[in-house]
Amino acid sequence: MNSARYRRYFFIAVLLGGLSVFGQDTDTYNPYWVYFYDKEISDEVGFDVSDPEFSHLTPRALNRRAIRGTTRGPSYLDLPVSEVYIQDILRSDIKVRAVSRWLNAISIMAPASYIEELAQNSTVKKTRRIHKVSKRSIKEISRDDEIYFHDTDYGDSFDQNDQINAIAAHEAGYTGTDVWLLMLDTGFFTDHLAFQQERIVAEYDFIQSDSITQNQENDPANQHNHGTATASAAGGFIAGELRGVAFDCKYLLAKTEIVNEEIQAEEDYFVAALEWGEALGADVVSSSLGYLDWYTYADLDGETAVTTRGVDIAVGLGMVCVTAAGNEGNTDWYYIIAPADADSAISVGAVDATNTIANFSSHGPTSDGRIKPEVLARGVSTFAAGTASTAAFISANGTSLSTPLVAGAAALILEAHPQWTPMMVRAALMMTADGSRSPDNTRGFGLIDVMAAINYDFGIVPGDVTEDDELNVSDAVLLLEWVLNDIDITEIQFEVADINGDNQLNILDIVVLVEWILTL
Question: What sign does the dihedral 487-493-499-500 (CA atoms) show?
C-alpha cells in the first residue's frame, strides 16, 4: 500500500531488533517454506486467463475482485505452483503441509540438513523456517448477569452491539445479508443453536484435511471453543438470546489453529485458509490468530511476516481483512503481533463496557512508525456462544472478541455499500471512530461507530487540502504553508484543513495529518 513512500518525509520511529537466532538439530523434522523462482511461466508473459487451472475461482470471487479489487480477474498469483518443481524437491520422507499459489511456495516437514541441500536446486528461490502461532486465547470469566442489560431481542449481547452503534444499523435494515464472512480460528461448534446450518456455505479443517470444523476424535476437548465464541460474536443468532453484529451473514469456516500446547499451529495454514476463502468468494475475513515466535519488533514493518503479506494480497483481491491486535499490552512484548502490522489490515484493540482500554490490549506503532491498532470494540466481558451445550453462553476477554465485532461491522458496511473497496471500508471505520481527530498507539483511531461509518461521505476528505481525492505528502506541504504564512482560505478549505476540530489552523492539524498519511 502507499504509506511507505511518505515515511522519508517525516519522523520515523526508532526501531531496534535483534536477529532471530535459534538452534536446531539437523535430524529433527521441522516446518519450512520452500519458495520457487517461477511457475514454469516466469511472469505475465504467456499468461492465459482462460487456463483451466483457474477453475478454483468461483464467479462470486471474480465478481468481488472486479468490483473491489486492485487485482481484477485471474492473475499470475492464481497459477498453481508447478507440480514438476514440487516433485523434483520431494523425497519419500518429506511431507507437504500446504501449497500457496500466492507465495509460489510449499510448506514441508524436513530436517535442516535437507533444507541446506535445496540451496543447490535451480528452481528453489529460498527456504525459510515457518513461524509458530502466538497463542491467541480468550480468557473465559465467570458470568455475572448483572453487568449486562438483557434485551428482549438481543439478550445479553445488547451492550456490545449498542456500544458500537450496530443496533442503529440493524434498525436501518443492515444485518449482513448476502455478505460472506470467512472465520479463521481453532474450530467451530456448528451444532450450537447460534449457527443455522443454511448460513454455513463451506467449512474446512486445514489440520486434518477434511470438511469438519467442530471437534473430532483426535481433537482436544477445547479445540473448537475459541472459534465458537468469535464466530458467534461476529454473526451468531438466537432470538432473544444472542445477536452477532452481522447476524444474517453467511459463513466460511476455516479451522487453522491447533490448541494442543504440545503441537504448534503455524502460519502456513493461515495463508492456505486465506486463499481457500478468497477463491470461494469471501467478502470479509476475521482472524483472531497472531504470529510472534522468532519475529522481532523490526519484523513488524508491514512487509516481512508471511501472514502480513498474505493479508495484503487478500485485500488487493477485494477482501476486507480484520485481525486482532493481540493481548500483549501487559507483557514484556507490549506491541501488536503479525499480521496486525499489515498496512491494509484493520487491526483491533479491546475496550471494556465503559470504553476504557483493556490493559492487555496490544499497542503500536509498527516498527516503521505507523499507528496501530486501527480501531477498538468491546473485548472485556464480551458475550458469546459457549460449547458446554448447544445453547451455552460465556463471558470472555481478549482482542479475539473485539475483532469479530469489527468484522461484523465491516459486513454491514459492505451490505450498505457493496462497491466500496476494502481500503474504503477501513477508512470509513477509522475516520468515524471516536478518536479519529487525535489517534495514538494505544487506542488507535478509537471505538468504532457502525452507523457513522455507513454514512461516511468520501466527497469531502478531511486533510485533502490539495483536492486530489487522496491524502499524501502534497497535502502536508500545502497545509504547512497555510499555517506558517497565515494565508487566507475559504470556509470550505478551512473545514477540510481544521483536522483536529479546534476551530483554528496550527501545527496540531499538521501532526494529525501526518499520522493519517502514515496510517490510512
Answer: positive
- Taking the C-alpha atoms of residue 412 and residue 204, their distance in angstroms, rounded to an integer, is 25
pLDDT digits (tens, 9 = 90+) for 469-500: 788 898 889 888 888 888 888 777 888 888 88
Distance, in Å, from the CA atom of 395 to the CA atom of 457, rounded to the nearest integer, reads 36
- The widest CA-to-CA distance across the chain, in whole angstroms, is 76
Q: Which domains does the chain have, with CATH numbers?
A: 29-134 (3.30.70.80), 144-454 (3.40.50.200), 473-519 (no CATH)
SS3 call for 168: helix
Q: Using 50, 70 and 90 to split pLDDT, how confident is the model at 509?
A: confident
Residue 50 has pLDDT above 70, yes or no: no
Whole-angstrom distance, CA of residue 421 vs CA of residue 65: 10
Q: Quote the cell numbers at residue 331.
A: 507483557
Confidence bin at 355 (pLDDT 50/70/90): very high
Question: Where does the pLDDT of residue 261 fall: very low under 50, low under 70, confident under 90, or very high at 90 and above?
Answer: low
DSSP 207: T
| Order of strands, sheet of 393-397, starting from the edge strand that comes earlier in the sequence | 139-141, 393-397, 382-385
Overall size of the chain counted in residues? 520
Question: Three-state SS for 501?
Answer: coil
Residue 48 CB partners (closer than 8 Å, separation 6+): none
- Cell 506541504 locates to 477
Cα dist from 408 to 111, 177, 235, 358, 493, whole Å: 42, 11, 7, 21, 35
pLDDT digits (tens, 9 = 90+) for 64-119: 999 999 888 888 899 999 999 999 999 889 989 999 999 999 999 999 999 999 99
Reference 179, options 112, 118, 109, 244; nearest CA is: 244
Q: What is the pTM of this model?
A: 0.86
Give residue 279's pLDDT. Answer: 97
If 0-12 CB within 10 Å is exposed, 13-18 middle and 19+ buried, where does residue 144 land? exposed
Look up cell 504467456; give the residue. 46
- Closest to 418 measured CA to CA, from 173, 243, 179, 204: 179
CB atoms within 10 A of CB 389: 11
Q: What share of the chain is helix, strand, coil (3-state, %, to 5)?
A: 30, 20, 50
Q: What is the pLDDT of residues 229-254, one digit of tens each?
A: 999 999 999 999 999 999 999 999 99
C-alpha to C-alpha distance for 98 and 100, rounded to whole angstroms: 7
CA dihedral 482, 369, 257, 36 (to 10 degrees): 100
**pLDDT tens digits along 443-458:** 999 999 999 999 998 8
